[in-house]
Amino acid sequence: LLLGCELTASTKSYTFQVDEEDDSDHILALSVVCLTDGAKDECNVVEVVGRNHENQEIAVPVANLKLSCQPLLSLDNFKLQPPVTFRLAAGSGPVHLAGWHRIMHREDASLEDDDLSEEDEEELPPIMPAKK
């Protein structure tokens, strides 16, 4: 599934969350952060707000965009685990975020594990010495 949202002076944050009762694994990947039409030549800092392994909220800046020098940043599918909030920490935007959301059902995960175990059981050809 594709994800897209826009952060502006009036809408400074966007939270992506999943149903707590859903037993599937969810991966959210952020691909591109870019300034869109109407952006001023100012620093626009986008933060990702999530929780660490101790369930404490942490905010990490992932992009600092400026129209005159860096209007776009590719994040190469930066993977996050929902719930996560994207926040415009500085600037007025508009900043567009694009990425994708993958849902991995528990049954699918067990099938993939079976596939991997079958591959592990296959015999590999012996390593032959190099010819001199």
From TrEMBL:
Which compartments does it reside in? Nucleus, Nucleolus
**What Gene Ontology biological process does one annotation of this record name?**
chromatin remodeling
User: Which branch of life, at top level?
Assistant: Eukaryota
Gene Ontology CC entries for this record = cytoplasm; nucleolus; nucleoplasm
- Annotated Nucleoplasmin core domain ranges read 3-102
Q: Which GO terms describe its molecular function?
A: chromatin binding; histone binding; RNA binding
UniProt keyword terms in alphabetical order: Acetylation, Chaperone, Methylation, Nucleus, Phosphoprotein
The record's region (Disordered) falls at 110-132
Q: Where is the signal peptide?
A: none
Coarse class of the primary localization is: nucleus
Read off the Pfam families from this record: Nucleoplasmin
Q: Where is the composition biased (Acidic residues)?
A: 110-124
Q: Which PANTHER family would you find in this protein's record?
A: NUCLEOPLASMIN, NUCLEOPLASMIN-3
What is the similarity comment for this entry? Belongs to the nucleoplasmin family.
Q: What does this protein do?
A: Plays a role in the regulation of diverse cellular processes such as ribosome biogenesis, chromatin remodeling or protein chaperoning. Modulates the histone chaperone function and the RNA-binding activity of nucleolar phosphoprotein B23/NPM. Efficiently mediates chromatin remodeling when included in a pentamer containing NPM3 and NPM.
How does the annotation summarize its subunit structure? Interacts with NPM (via N-terminus). Forms a pentamer with NPM at a ratio 4:1 (NPM3/NPM). Two pentamers form a decamer.
Instruction: Name it.
Output: Nucleoplasmin-3
Q: Which organism is it from?
A: Oxylabes madagascariensis (white-throated Oxylabes)
